[in-house]
């Protein structure tokens, strides 16, 4: 079945039927940023094969707990991949840690992450305070132009002028828009944060079980 995607870019969403029921493919036309993003993820995957493995597990987990549908107010698959990438950039990752250990660290990292106070910048490889103080040259940059996808567009050097208009902020490294702008309600953010807490506790909490993927998938 072919349906137009709700994304403002000219996307076509293909929902497959048997024997591939449950799978879907999105075809994007004339979107240079999406092409650049695909190349970026491809090359990160070639640098470290734990990255695609972690993305796959996180994607399946997000689907199971119901926080993977951007059209329902949650995060797109691309936003989840950016979260994994940011974790590998800024988490306390040891080069020899296996993917399973990284998964536990991933849940622990985001269960502690304050999305209301902090923004994620993939381009800088860091966390940026979501301040609106114009005296802060890192967290504040004047708005350059309007953008339909996220409401506002940042100057090439910095983040949006007021990231507080969003419930969470993950900077797309190419468009510089908010890749998590689909999270519009506090209830949606709380569900995402709650899912991180539950996943973390299933591995390292006081009632943690044996560290198996079946505990979360």
Automatic annotation (TrEMBL):
Keywords on record: Magnesium, Metal-binding, Transferase
Which BP terms from GO are recorded? Answer: RNA 3'-end processing
Q: Which InterPro entries match?
A: PAP_assoc
* Pfam entry (one): PAP_assoc
Task: Tell me where in this chain the PAP-associated domain is found.
Answer: 100-176
Identify the domain of life.
Answer: Eukaryota
Q: Which GO terms describe its molecular function?
A: metal ion binding; poly(A) RNA polymerase activity
The UniProt entry, under PANTHER family, shows: PAP-ASSOCIATED DOMAIN-CONTAINING PROTEIN, POLY A POLYMERASE CID PAP -RELATED
| Protein name (record) | PAP-associated domain-containing protein
What is the protein's species of origin? Answer: Gongylonema pulchrum
């Amino acid at each position: 079945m072919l349906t137009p995607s709700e994304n403002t870019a000219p996307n076509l969403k293909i929902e497959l039927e048997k024997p591939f029921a449950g799978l879907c493919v999105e075809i994007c036309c004339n979107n240079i940023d999406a092409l650049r993003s695909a190349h970026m993820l491809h090359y990160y995957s070639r640098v470290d094969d734990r990255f695609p493995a972690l993305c796959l597990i996180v994607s399946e987990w997000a689907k199971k707990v119901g926080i993977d549908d951007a059209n329902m107010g949650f995060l797109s698959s691309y936003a989840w991949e950016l979260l994994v990438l940011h974790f590998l950039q800024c988490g306390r990752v040891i080069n020899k840690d296996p993917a399973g250990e990284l998964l536990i660290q991933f849940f622990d990292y985001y269960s502690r992450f304050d999305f209301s106070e902090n923004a994620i910048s993939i381009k800088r490889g860091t966390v940026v305070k979501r301040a609106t103080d114009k005296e802060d040259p890192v967290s504040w940059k004047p708005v350059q132009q309007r953008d339909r996808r996220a409401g506002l567009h940042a100057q090439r050097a910095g983040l949006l002028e007021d990231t507080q208009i969003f419930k969470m902020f993950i900077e797309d490294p190419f468009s510089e828009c908010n890749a998590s702008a689909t999270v519009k309600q506090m209830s949606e953010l709380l569900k995402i944060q709650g899912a991180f807490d539950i996943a973390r506790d299933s591995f390292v909490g006081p009632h943690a079980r044996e560290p198996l993927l079946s505990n979360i998938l």
